[in-house]
Each structure stands twice: as C-alpha cells, then as structure tokens.
Write a structure and sequence with these properties.
690 residues; alpha/beta; 7-stranded mixed β-sheet; 15 helices; 26 strands; 25% helix; elongated; disordered C terminus
Length: 690
C-alpha cells in the first residue's frame, strides 16, 4: 500500500517541462531578473509560448533596445533555455519587448524551437495515426465475418481507443492523484512569497477539532499601556476575562498599538510614545490572541531596539506578527497559518513612509500599490484565503476617504479575500465588493492609552467552511477596558450604527452575510485584452552535442495548481455544540441565491453578482467625505518607479499595445525635473547571456 504523503514534489523544471506555464514563467523570469529584465509567460497556444519582456534599465543609442545586438542576444538566450528544457509542449516562442510602464512594443520576434522531445512527439503522433488507419481497415474486414469475430474485435477496439487517448493526452500527476482513492498529495510546508520562501505554521490547538468550520476573529486597536495597565495591574487574565469568543476562535487577531519593551528613549520627536512591559504579552496569550499586526503608527515608538524586543517577545510567546521587521524582507513577510486543512495568509501595510523598513533598516511595511499586487499574486496560487490589513485613514472619521475605497477595491481585484482596516479609533462602514468583504475600521478594542474606558465597538467574526465565507459583526461593549459581546437592545444599537455608516456603499455589508467563494480560489489568471500578433518566424535548433538537462533544479517551488485539500475522515466523537456553523443542523447552503423567507438565514452573495441593482440611485455623495489621505502620495508628475505610488486603476497585467515604431527611436532616461539630463550608459547585456 502506497500513501500519498510519501510522494515527492516535482521540481520547477519538471513542472515547466510538463507544460505548466506558471512554472515556466517563474523559471524564465528568475534567469532574466538579475539583468534588469522582467519576463511574463502566457499559456502556450498550439505549442507556441508567448513571452513579454520588460526592461527596467535605460540604454544608450549604441545598445538601444531596438538594436540588433541586444535583441539577438536576448532571443538566442531565451530560445536556448527553452531548448534545454526539452519540453514536448513547447514547439515555438513568440517574444515581445517593451519598457516597463510603456504600452508600446519595441520589437517582436517568433522562433520555432526543435527539440528531441517535440520531434519525438510529432513522430509518435504520426505513427499513431497510421496505426489507427490500419486498425480501422482490419476491423472493417473482420466485421464481414462471423458474429464472434465481431464481438472479440469490438472489445479489442475499445481497449485500443482508450490506450490511444491516454497516449495523446497524458494525465498530470495531480489529476491522477485526484481520481485515486486514499489521501491527497501532501502540500509543501512552505510558500514562495514575493521576496522569500515562508514556512507554513500549522495551528494544531483548536477549540473544536471535529467541526470543519474555521473561525477567525478580528479586533481593532489594542494598547496595553497607561490607564489599562494601571487598571489590570499584574492580573494578565483581566482584560479578556469577559470575551470568551476570542479564546473559542481558531485564529484571533488584533492591531497591537504599542511596543512590548523595557527600552528607553534618549531623544524623541513624537509627542506620544507608547510602550508596555514585555510581561504584558501574557494578556494576549491568555485572551487567545494568535497573531498581531505591527504595521501601525506606534510600532516604532521606541525605535529599532523597541521593535526588535517586541518581535522577540511575541516569538517566545508563540504569537505571530506581521507588518514590521528588522528589514524590508521581514516587514513584507506574510504570516501563513494552516487550520483544519485550510491555508490562510495574512498581510499588513502601514499607509505612511514614516519609519518605513528598508534594506538593513528596521521599520514598518509601507503601503505601495505595486508591492501589494506583487505580494498577493505571489502567494495566490498557494493558499486558500488571503487577508490584508491596512493601517490608514483619518482619526475619528466616521467614513473612509475615496482613496481608501479605491485602494481596498484594488486589493480585492488583485486576489485578496478580505480587507480589514484600523487606525481611526472609531467604527467605520463595511461593504461587499465583487463578493469579498471590506471592513474599513474596527475602532478601538482595548485601548489603554485613552482616559476613556467605556465605549461601544465591534469585532469581526469570519467563518470558513468548504468554499463559503460567512462574515458578521459581533457588537461589543467596553467597560473599564474590559470588552464583552452584548445582545438585546445594546447589541442592536451597535449593529444599527454599523448599518447606518455602511449605507454609503453600493453594496453595504450586513451584520451577517454568506459569500460564495470562487470556483478556483487558488488561481486567478488574468486574460490579456490585446492580441499578440504573429511576427517573423525563425527556427532554433542547437547543435546535437549540446547538453540536455537531466531535470535537477535548485530553484524553490513557487507553488502550482493543486486539487483542493480533502481531509481524511475523523473518528467518531460525541456531538459537540457548534458555535460557528454556517447553517442550521450543519447543512450546506441552498442552491438558490435567496433562501425562502421562512428560514432565518443570512443572504448569500456570489462573486459574479452585479455590484449595483438597476434603477438604484447612486448612494455616494458627489463630494468625497475625506478629501485628503492620511499620508499624501507623491504627485503624479514625479514619474513612476518600483517604489512609487501607483493609481489603483493601473493594471500590471499582461497587456500590450502595438504601435508602429521608428527605426531610429531612442529610449531616453527618465529624470525628475530635468527631461534633457544625461543618459545612463550600461554595458550590453548580450555578452552575458549569449
């Protein structure tokens, strides 16, 4: 008996050789990126791979992008790598080149690639057709004979047809695993993020292991200093004593607004600097907090020593953290948790450049639209759910600014499943955009930095079951810094307030709503709107003594499309109360989108449902509620670079525009304030890749 756990995972080269265009994209891009060239590979059509190369460097007229030296060297390099791959699925390549951020195509070229694999495949295909014709002839002759011969020959023909189909269309290893009985293939223990390989943390201690529903809890700002510390004293169980919902959730999260450090400051430019004793981390552990967001305005109150001590304290307590680090790699690192077979990725961004992390510099993760898109797309095919936290907005504002709405929707468009905001210290509205929830601010949760100890707020509860997401607000009253979920008139009052401030949106989010997940949540491909037209054809066939790779690779596995995880059956256990079930009696949702009115069920929303019903007046005001963002982005006139603010409407997909280019076109270097500045001179790239 063979179990799937013992199966080895295919390498990048194995996946690329089998026709996986995502693995091919990762492999080609990793070879060209050190030279300042980014590559995007589109899925092969009729054996022809389409590659768009984007240049991040500027070149002088001697090595211009339109020149033959660089062009021939780059085409030769790509074709040689594809020949070394020796994939039967790749019979040609069509290369288009352009500058990053520019729609015009500088040049294009198509080349036919002849490899031993595709030559053998064409020969086998021809032999198969000849054999099939011969077989049909023999069958016609034998059918004239006896009925017994016809019966035997029919059985033989059926077997031959099944074998021929199998030879022509081989089944991938994952498709074979899907139809085999037994457990599915084991998922890798790490995920390839935008900057590094991130390990997956498996959450083994859950409140109800026999309930397949995964429950997530999100709270607002938490500050354990000043008045809250004075009220609780050394009783670390006091703050979360009245809110068992946080301990019962599978993964609970808050926005931690103070460092956990004993360090001091010699000179500070800030008016308010918060910190709590490192022993205060026991408040979080006793309250059931599993992960905290550090991408906020107070994570660096005690500079790098305070942040480093905070990170070490959280690590020792077993609490995950995101949004800040000793360098930009740590600050951008997602926190990935696997609960009951479902993988959930958390990302955190601070909408300010103040104390931003960089190479060799500790700080918070600054929000850049291009970075957000890159981080989400890097892990989208390797996890089941992506949650993005934003520390943004204006304090005490009841409504988000228009720029926040654009940013949140841009995040959903990139592939996120949930957007959670904080910083304004008050509740703001929530909406459903393209079947995904956006919560703009959860207000204060336990905020000891304020003298005000009694206030109303809410926490967000998210339940994940199968391919559905249920989101709901739990009304919370805070008294003497102790939060508790309330019902009755007090709870209705808080939920009514959330409903009122959410009414400005096209589709306001109700307190409880079930959202239908996409059919393939792991992969969200983007289809280009423009067609890549064929160019001049060539043929690439290297010498016969050129080496062919044996399949080994040191490249990390970036993740690929895999079957949805199927948990093995659990042993029988006594029935336990299910506090996070989606529907009554544990049943699934009805097929129709609107349940009968006799059942008290939340509405179900599909991703392809129109965002705004017809004949409905526009609920937005003509003037924005908040005209200025929390931190103003650079003006558009400063140009674009990988670190600049990009408009949410800017699409970084595989879209190109074809335009007739003059043969003597020069590619100038972009400058700020001096368009006629000197050009950047770089050595030709062809010498290193030829």
């Amino acid at each position: 008996m063979v179990y799937a756990e013992n199966w080895s995972q295919p390498s990048i080269l194995d996946l690329a050789r089998s026709g996986n265009f995502q693995a091919l994209n990762y492999w080609i891009d990793s070879l060209l990126r050190p030279e300042g060239i980014y590559a995007r590979v589109e899925q092969a059509q009729a054996g022809c791979v389409q590659i768009l190369v984007e240049f991040q460097r500027e070149f002088t007229p001697e090595t211009t992008l339109l020149g033959s030296t660089l062009r021939e060297g780059l085409v030769k390099f790509i074709c040689h790598q594809l020949w070394r791959l020796n994939s039967p699925a790749v019979e040609g390549v069509r290369i288009h080149a352009r500058l990053a951020g520019e729609p015009e195509i500088l040049w294009k070229q198509s080349v036919r690639i002849v490899t031993p694999a595709n030559r053998r495949q064409r020969r086998d295909r021809s032999l198969l057709v000849i054999d099939w014709v011969k077989f049909k002839t023999y069958r016609s002759l034998l059918l004239v004979g006896s009925a017994l011969a016809s019966f035997i020959l029919g059985c033989w023909v059926s077997y031959h047809e099944a074998l021929a189909i199998r030879l022509v269309s081989p089944v991938s290893p994952y498709q074979q695993a899907a139809v085999m009985s037994g457990p599915p293939p084991k998922r890798p223990d790490s995920v390839q993020a935008a900057l590094e390989v991130v390990p997956v943390v498996k959450q083994k201690q859950v409140a109800n292991p026999y309930d397949p529903t995964v429950t997530l809890m999100f709270g607002g700002n938490v500050n354990l200093s000043d008045a809250m510390a004075a009220s609780a004293g050394n009783d670390y169980h006091w703050a979360f004593a009245n809110i068992d919902e946080y301990r019962q959730a599978d993964v609970s999260m808050v926005n931690l607004e103070n460092p956990l450090t004993s360090s001091t400051l010699t000179n500070s430019k800030k008016q308010l600097n918060f910190k709590a004793d490192p022993e205060s981390v026991k408040v979080l552990t006793s309250g059931g907090v599993d992960i905290v967001n550090l991408a906020n305005s107070h994570a660096m109150d005690y500079e790098e020593p305070g942040l480093v001590e905070t990170i070490n304290t959280l690590n020792n307590a077993g609490i995950g953290h995101l949004g800040a680090g000793r360098n930009i790699k740590e600050a951008r690192r997602p926190d990935i948790i696997e609960v009951k077979g479902q993988r959930i990725a958390y990302l955190g961004y601070y909408d300010a450049d103040l104390n931003a992390a960089d190479q060799g510099k500790a700080g918070t993760n600054p929000r850049r639209n291009n970075r957000v898109a890159e981080d989400i797309r890097a892990i989208r095919g390797q996890v089941d759910w992506i949650i993005v936290n934003y520390h943004w907005g204006v304090e005490l504002a009841d409504y988000p600014g228009d720029w926040q709405i654009d940013l949140a929707r841009f995040t959903i468009d990139q592939g996120a499943d949930l957007v959670v905001g904080h910083h304004p210290h008050v509740l703001q509205g929530a909406e459903v955009y393209k079947g995904r929830p956006i919560v703009y601010s959860l207000g204060n949760f336990i905020f000891g930095a304020n003298a005000r100890s009694d206030y109303d707020t809410a926490v967000l509860k998210v339940s994940l079951k199968d391919r559905n997401m249920k989101v709901e607000f739990l009304p919370v009253e805070v008294k003497k810094f102790q939060p508790s979920v309330v019902n009755g008139a007090a709870g209705d009052r808080i939920l009514k307030h959330v409903e009122q401030i959410s009414s400005i949106f096209d589709r306001p989010m109700r307190s409880s709503v079930v959202l239908d997940a996409p059919i393939n949540p792991g992969i969200r491909p983007k289809t280009p709107n423009s067609t890549l037209y064929p160019a001049k054809s060539g043929t690439y066939a290297p010498r016969l003594n050129s080496p062919v790779p044996a399949g080994e690779s040191n490249l990390p596995n970036p993740g690929q499309l895999k079957p949805a995880p199927i948990l093995p059956p659990l042993p029988a256990a006594p029935k336990q109360p299910d506090n996070s079930s989606f529907f009554e009696n544990g049943t699934g949702p009805a097929i129709e989108s609107n349940p009968p009115p006799t059942r008290d069920l939340p509405p179900r929303i599909y991703r392809n449902q129109p965002q705004k019903p017809s004949r409905e007046p526009d609920p937005f005001a003509r003037e924005p509620f908040i005209k200025e963002p929390f931190i103003s982005p650079p003006p558009p006139s400063l140009g674009e670079n990988p670190q600049s603010y990009l408009s949410p409407s800017r699409d970084l997909s595989f879209k190109v525009g074809l335009k007739q280019q003059p043969t003597n076109r020069l590619v100038p270097r972009r400058t700020v304030g001096n368009p006629s500045g000197p050009r950047l001179v770089l050595p030709p790239i062809a010498s290193s890749i030829g």
